[in-house]
Amino acid sequence: MYAFDYHRPTSVKEAANLAGQAEDAKFLAGGHTLLPTMKLRLAGPASLIDLGQVAELRGIERSGDAITVGAMTKHAEVAGSADVRAAIPALAELAELIGDPHVRNRGTIGGSVANNDPAADYPAACLALNATIVTDKRRIAADDFFQGIFTTALDEGEIVTQVSFPIAAKAAYAKFRNPASRYALVGVFVAKHADGVRVAVTGAGSNGVFRVPEMEEALGRNFAPEALDGIAVPEDEMNSDIHADSAYRAHLVGVMARRAVEAAAARG
Amino acid sequence: MTATGIGAPVRRKEDQRFVTGQGRYVDDFNRPGQAFAYFLRSPHAHAAIRSIDTGPATIMPGVVAVLTGDNLAADGIGGLICGWMIHSKDGSPMKAGPHPALAQGKVRYVGDHVAVVIAETLAQAKDAAEAIVVDYEVLPAIVDTAEAAKASVQVHDVAPDNTVFNWHLGNREETEAAFARARHVTRIDLVNNRLVPNPIEPRAALGEYDPGTDTYTLYTTSQNPHVARLVLSAFIGVAPEHKLRVIAPDVGGGFGSKIFIYAEETVCVWAAKKVRRPVKWTSDRSEAFLADAHGRDHVTHAEMATDENGRIIGLRVHTTANLGAYLSTFASSVPTYLYAPLLSGQYDIPAIYCEVDAVYTNTAPVDAYRGAGRPEATFVVERLVEKTARELGQDPAEFRRRNYITQFPHQTPVIMTYDTGDYAASLDKALDLADYRNFQQRKQESARRGKLRGIGFSSYIEACGIAPSQAVGSLGAGVGLWESAEVRVNPTGSVEVLTGSHSHGQGHETTFAQLVSDRLGIPIDQVSIVHGDTDKVQFGMGTYGSRSGAVGMSAIAKALDKVIAKGKKVAAHVLEASEGDIEFKDGKFGVAGTDKALGFGEVALQAYIAHKFSGQDLEPGLKEGAFYDPTNFTFPAGVHICEVEIDPDTGVTRIDRWTAVDDFGVIINPMIVEGQVHGGIAQGVGQALLEGAVYDQGGQLVTASFNDYCMPRAIDLPSFQVGMTVTPCPSNPLGIKGCGEAGAIAAPPAVINAITDALGHEDIAMPATPQAVWRAAQKARMPMAAE
Questions:
Q1: In this predicted model, what pLDDT tens digit does every residue of B390-437 receive, in sequence order?
Q2: Does residue B697 share a domain with residue B610?
Q3: Which residues of B touch A183 (CB under 8 A)?
Q4: Could you say which of B126, B771, B774 has the minimum Cβ distance to residue A243?
Q5: Is the minimum CB–CB distance between B769 and chain A shorter than 8 Å?
Q6: Which partner for B165 in A111, B94, B584, B754 could form a disulfide, CB atoms 3.0-4.6 Å apart?
């Protein structure tokens, strides 16, 4: 790890000011991507702005037809939240499938969406649940937020403060874990809303998280696994690595989508 | 059996300190004035070094020294060695290329040692390493085992076709004749996947030099500190043997990878004198992936001949073994004498012929890893036996039974003389525990749920208790493989046992104490086991190859016999009886036929005060030593049965049941033995389903972290059904065979045989990842599945 300046603001405003002043600054949330990268000397930001003491970034709230999760809320808190379990059980289940207990008690939702790792779980939930990513400057629809591998709509110095999830009628997440890393090799989040079905896939796409309109239309007509028969995602848009080539990933998208629909439908 | 004697499931004495963080590992030692070493490693798989400019690094903050291979050469420090000479078929010696501790002119794998920076802090050493300017001429690399001998790339000048040796074993003519008259021949092509050992504690070394006494101390993560001292002094030449103390304190697992003498500890000792500061190096996990000796990596074609009665009459095997870029300490023995002599398995096979071509590649050195050659042999035999049974339409269990060796001793055509065993007894017990008779019912039930169920057998044998020194000497070993022990009885009757074995997870502090408690009749807490320090233990060969029970404890038993014999003499003087009338029983020395007796502690005290005898007729004191050289290998054997259920939609293999019935001979501590079986199976399942080191064609290690290299987790394993059969080993005084590697040897073929049974075809390689199994399942969807 290279030397760096360490800042620990207590408000979003202070954090944003620091980011404006410091050169080559990085926000530190749970640190589960940034710190290992720094330890391997693959990243060397001049300043770290640790958001861990910013109280306004934490907590989970249910208001009417949405669940709003503060950006610094840890995965374990989402997994264990009675509000989340009651309103969007699929979201709690997704949080419980991230990494291991160590990761779930450090990693945060804000860090996950801001990083937009192509194999992270939360981006699939955000897209399928039609979430709004709230920052210190604006509100961004999930459809506009995720823009490709490790790329988001965030401006330099912009801080994710909350993620707001509309409560879907039915939803489920089916994840096929990378056997080694436990990231999603393929993760499919299916959500049935009043105005239609949304299907989002993480881990598989060569350009990061994506929706599958063909599946959404079919499920809009008939929310059942067999509605997906014959629908395939294009292999040439899938990721390929030593764990899974594009053909296998494309196949798994179908399998996981059917399993997610089955689980969502079973919620009654 | 007493509560702490032989056969008692005594809780491990050492665990209190391990689980409360009180263990002391090499990295826990810090010496006054200590500096830190960081190795600059090659980013290229193969390159000539045109020049190294250390100048910019030497002026970086905190830098004490920057050293390269030139400095090593200038100081006359020799290269690392391979301690087992193998001769090719034509009689020529193996081609050992130079193996300097720091590169001299060339780097040969990613992670190879280019230079070392010694600095006040590790961070400063790393910063300075980035300032070293190395001018590489990058060369094409060869990584592929099967292609190495044909490659235009040449790893070492001494080996023009990258071939270390072409070796063979067995009776070639008889084997050819057997195949000529065979009714059926079964053929198989196998890859034994390369593994990264990954003990939980990475390697570490701390070298220290005392200019006042001109002595050196090395703290190191070693399974065999005396061998490390011998190699560092007599061969590499960093310090004279009598001036070098090697300490291997608590060591967090080795699995073979800490047997070897590596560049890093060599450099730490040498540099400590050069900079007159203690020098510490601790591997990080990334370095461990790159530069610990890897395991396995064989490509094999094998054929099995059977006659009209379904009896195996011949086996021929051709294996190409990848030894990596350099010959590690025992690399040459693993694919030869630790491999081919096990190819008879548990079967009466009159003719066996095996050829092994060992090759260099631009990859990390490959050496012994849990099982070392024996898992590779067992994989060949048990995959081939299973396939043969299937091709002959026979029940795989009964096919095995028909071919089992039943008469002992049994001489195989590949060196080994099996001393004892009852293979059918293990099979019967395993079939019973596995509920084999109802397997078809379970298979149908799985099919109703759209799942493919399969069952796989592994009827393994291994050669442990290595080894008779004369025998291994005749096969090319540079050392003898006996063990030493010293039993020191204190005046208060407590006992210290100094052993040349080394515990790095095996539980010696408990099992060895159990033997002493059992033999001397003293409480187990009156016994201390001392190991891992060349200043305390006179000499020892260390721990590997499941040898510490069979060989190390036999040495202790021999020393205990001497202690008891001396105790009888002392008791005879004190009790004023004739020595021949003294009996030692239940911890008491008594005069036969009387109630006159002395407790063990009383005799110990009398031995030290020596009031009742003169030093002329009996020496004071009670301390005895012994060297034990085994008369034969030991042959643990057993039957493992794995039952899997495959999800054909995803390719996920779930191990539903695991039955292990092992014959380890006499068992000292059944709880520790069962733990060894569990751990071994976990590693074997890791090889079969999860683990595989992958280099890309350029020689970069793709699986260089746990993000890509999949270690087995508890969730990957079922609860194991473990049973035992016992045929005491006749070749050592305790009847012990050894248990440390059995699971890792037995497991891989059991898993793959189960998967191929479920799939209905043989075409699946290790690791059988979900992707690989899905693809294989696509090929042959079972007709009964999910229709």
A1: 999 999 999 999 999 999 999 999 999 999 999 999 999 999 999 999
A2: no
A3: 707
A4: B771
A5: yes
A6: B94
- The identity of residue B702, as a single letter, is V
Same-domain check for residues B599 and B656 = no
Residues of B in contact with A2 (CB under 8 A): 127
Closest CA to B270 of B532, B131, B129, B78: B78
Q: What's the half-sphere exposure (Cβ side, CA atoms, 13 Å) at A101?
A: 0
Nearest to A255 among B286, B650, B690 (CB): B650
Residue B195 placed within a domain: no
SS3 (DSSP) at B199: coil
SS3 B78: coil
Tell whether B578 is covered by a domain.
yes
**pLDDT computed for residue B193 by the predictor:** 98
Residue A180 contacts B, CB cutoff 8 Å: yes
B/e letters for B318-355, b = 16+ CB within 10 Å, e = fewer, are: ebbbbbbbbbbbbbbbbbbbbbbbbbbbbbbbbbbbbb
Question: Over 60: is that where the pLDDT of B783 sits?
Answer: no
Q: pLDDT tens for residues B577-636?
A: 999 999 999 999 999 999 999 999 999 999 999 999 988 889 999 999 999 999 999 999
Overall domain count for chain A: 2
The confidence score (pLDDT) of residue A42 equals 93
Q: Residue B1 — very low, low, confident or very high, per pLDDT cuts 50/70/90?
A: low
A-chain residues near B694 (CB < 8 A): 242
B702/A242 CB distance under 8 A: yes
Asked if residue B588 and residue B502 are part of one domain, the reply reads: yes
The alpha-carbon gap from A255 to the nearest alpha carbon of chain B, in Å, equals 7
B123 to chain A, any CB pair closer than 8 A? The answer is yes
List the CATH number of the domain containing A14.
3.30.43.10
Record: contact B706-A252, CB cut-off 8 A = no
Q: Determine, yes or no, domain membership for B12.
A: no
Least CB–CB distance from B650: residue in A41, A176, A245: A176
Show the low-confidence residues of chain A (pLDDT under 50). none
Judge if ipTM > 0.90: yes
Do B132 and B265 lie in a common domain?
yes
The CATH code of the domain that includes B584 is 3.30.365.10
> What is the arithmetic mean of pLDDT over B91-116?
98
- Which residues span the domain enclosing B93? 31-139+200-253+258-291
User: Encoding tokens for residue B723?
Assistant: 């049973």
